[in-house]
Amino acid sequence: MSVTPADDPRLTAMGLMAEVYLGLTAKMNAAFTASGLSEIDFETLIRLYRSPGRRLRMSDLAAQTSLSTSGVTRVVDRLEREGLVERVACATDRRASYATLTDAGAARLETVLPQHIEDIETWFTGLLPPERLEDFLASLRIIRDVVRPCATAGAMDLSDLSSRQS
């Protein structure tokens, strides 16, 4: 029995990934909306929150999100007007600036995080035993590093963090 192109397991993998992403997004957007954040607002704020000094160069923030450089500029402009982010000039490169999370931005994000983490546990990570989750995350990182090599731009290497804490 031959496999037709429509039965190719690669199509199944792609379809499952899309279905999972869309399903998770639908389940988790309610927590963002309740706090007055859009999905892209949350993505921007969480990237800054988890970055060294709670800041990223604008170009690195664009690389880490699903936004173009002009798109991230518009989002940061809006978040800046709301007092959640501020733009800080780079001291060593006049062409560059940083998006920096404000205390108000961190506070807003922290109102969403408990529910978001609970949703992640309920709809995602809690469905897998720890060893399968570890393997799954490793697999996702392999794929991410190929399809979005700039996704960790400006982020601190976790090995740097552990060596600083020693």
Automatic annotation (TrEMBL):
Q: Which Pfam family, giving just one, matches this sequence?
A: MarR_2
Q: Where is the HTH marR-type domain?
A: 10-145
Q: Which domain of life is it from?
A: Bacteria
Q: Which InterPro entries match?
A: HTH_MarR-typ, MarR/SlyA-like, WH-like_DNA-bd_sf, WH_DNA-bd_sf
Q: What PROSITE patterns does the entry give?
A: HTH_MARR_2
Instruction: Name the chain's protein.
Output: MarR family winged helix-turn-helix transcriptional regulator
The organism's lineage? Answer: Bacteria, Bacillati, Actinomycetota, Actinomycetes, Streptosporangiales
